[in-house]
Amino acid sequence: MKERHSLAFRDYLAAFQEPDEPFLFFYRVGKGGGVDRRGLTRGAFLSLAGKAAGVLRDAGQGRGCRILHCFGANDVHDLAFRLAGAMIGTVPVTVNWQDDPLDRLLYKCRQTEATMVVTGASFDPALREGLQARLPDIPFFDADGLGERRGISAAEYEADLGEEDTKIIIFTSGTTGNPKGAQLAYRSYRNNRAAFEQMLAIRPADRFAAVVVNPMHHTNSTAITDWALRRPGSHVHLIEKYSTGYWEILTGVAAEGYDRILAPTVSRHFDFLEELAAADRLPVPLGKLKEAMARIDFLIGSAPVGPTTVGRLQRYAGRIPTVRFGSTETCLQVLGIPRTLDDGARLEVFERGWAHQAQGEPLSGYYIGRPHEPYTEVRIVRGVVRGGEGFMVDVPAGTPGYLITRGGNVMTGYVGNPEATREVFEDGWYLGLKDICFALENPRDGRLDYFWVSRDSSLLIRGGANYAYDQISAQLADFVVRRYGLPRESFQIAVVGLRVESEHEDSCCVTMELLGDEARRLQPVLEESFLREAKRGVSKGARPDILRFAEIPRNFKGALLVPQLKKDTIAYLTSLGRRLS
Fold first, then answer.
1. Residue 257 lies in a domain
2. What's the rounded Cα separation, in Å, for the pair 541 and 460?
3. Which of 91-95, 160-164, 394-398, 461-465 has the least mean pLDDT?
4. Count of structural domains, the chain
5. 528-551 residue pLDDT tens
6. Are the C-beta atoms of 495 and 473 separated by less than 8 Å?
7. Distance between CA 94 and CA 542 in Å, rounded?
8. Which of 41, 244, 278, 293 has the largest count of CB atoms under 10 Å?
9. Which of 163, 251, 259, 267 is nearest to 214 (CA)?
10. What is the pLDDT of residues 467-489, one digit of tens each?
11. Chain-centre distance of CA 458, in angstroms?
């Protein structure tokens, strides 16, 4: 029978022409610190993905059907079902295994109209039971049973899948309400590959490996693993989850003779490294680790990269970091520091951003690189609200404004939410980043370098992920009701994220306003126990770091005045002698 494949699948097919070529190495770190590694060739992984496609087909799934991927850690089977989607046109839907409770999993399932759920052994059994009880008409499949299933042949691939078809749906937090699902097309990931290879100067002949530890439910690892699936000869070193053993694994990969090694990370990983080194708890000798790190391109994003992180990379890897910038809606990549800028030139640009002034006032910015022309474009404009001041009006170099972007990388829209989609697009430009940035002309080559200043939206950056203030406040308020028995109307809670004694990680700063005598009598108890007990009683993204008792600033409509709350919280922290970045 004649083979069939679609325009969307051709890149993947080209990358799997050498079945005996090693492709995927999966690492699991045991409780005792031992590292277990197993490998799959291109042919073996293609066969595994074919079995995943067979499971989906046998369950009646096909082009356009949404499949909820419920895993609890990075998993080979997750990646296999993603490639299976490209074979037959099904659409993976990711869930945040670090933070999604049952009600949010159900919301994502219903919002995407998912018709099947795939789970892994690492997925929380209680969540699986809850989903099955509430979704009795949807088939479930345990991915650990994949090995015994039949695979499909190339003749059974979906032939009509196009570049504008949805490749995957990844949910991202909004500033308020429920998270939105970004629909990313096949062309977004093709564009992403081209942008990365240009930025990092990856040549077709390079022996290339990516070391992936960031959770695969994020856009980061999704984009990096898809790139490796498309690029012939690429190797993926997939780590189940971050642990101290990560640094041992990196050291081993660096010794395998690759021309280029990419390790996508967040700044927080280097905080961990510093702590391990200071406590003499590194899993490998420091000198050996430094040798290895000098051979690796660390791609850092998701949080600002300031002097501390730059200094750490210089100290441990002997080089200036490579920074990338983007969002879920932009398929990860909008700007990045090109490899053509040497370390001296990079440091100069970082320092120009840190020392920048606008209208005679300090306006420090964190260097986030340059667009990847012709794959991504950017502008900085005065306003992004239709009918508002300065809508789509460009600002001059050195002046802060809103960063907007355009390119083949950008999503097609939010699933099931046409109104939200319309709000963030104007003539092909994506307006939804809501990041305040400025640009400066580089005296060496006359090109513009871009710098991040702050977020306009009410989001807190933690562990490389964004969390909405409103959702955190709601979780903490529910915790107070449950733990302390206070009526909901007897107190108010509001949070802001501030970088307290960290240049890249937001602390969750909680302001609690006690409204009645009963609540005020509990203030000493709350002062003594709230931070400690809430860290155990709420999700990772909502864990509080700082608590203050004060009136919460609101306007006449009752809306929270976030800038004033930040100002008040900064004044409080300053009075305590706390250092803010």
1. no
2. 9
3. 461-465
4. 2
5. 999 999 999 998 888 999 999 999
6. yes
7. 20
8. 293
9. 267
10. 768 778 989 999 999 999 999 99
11. 17
CB atoms within 10 A of CB 34: 10
Domain contains 95: yes
561 contacts 495 by C-beta, under 8 angstroms: no
Q: How far apart are CA 106 and CA 133, in angstroms?
A: 11
Token digits of residue 141: 């499949």
Tell which of 101, 128, 162 closes a domain. 162
Tell me the C-alpha distance between 211 and 312, whole Å. Answer: 20
In a domain, 191, yes or no: no
Check if the beta carbon of residue 37 is closer than 8 Å to that of residue 24.
no
CATH (domain of 54): 3.40.50.980
Tokens of 429: 């430009």
Q: CATH number of the domain at 493, please.
A: 3.30.300.30
Q: Whole-model pTM?
A: 0.85
Q: What tokens appear for 198 in the block?
A: 């240009």
SS3 content of the chain, % helix, strand, coil (to 5): 35, 25, 40
- Mean pLDDT, the chain, whole residue set: 93
What is the model's pLDDT at position 555?
72
**Cβ density class 197-207: b for 16+ within 10 Å, e for less:** bbbbebeeebe
Structural domain contains residue 2? yes
For 577: left if phi > 0, alpha if psi spans -120 to 50, otherwise beta; the answer is left
When pLDDT is averaged across residues 541-570 and rounded to a whole number, the result is 88
Mean pLDDT within 52-74: 98
- Coil/strand/helix, residue 206: coil
Torsion of CA 384, 218, 338, 318, to 10 degrees: 130
Nearest to 228 by CA among 456, 25, 62, 8: 25
Structural domain of 485: 467-575
Extended strands (E) in 193-346: 208-212, 235-239, 260-265, 297-300, 322-325, 335-336
Looking at the chain, the whole-number percentage of residues with pLDDT higher than 70 is 96
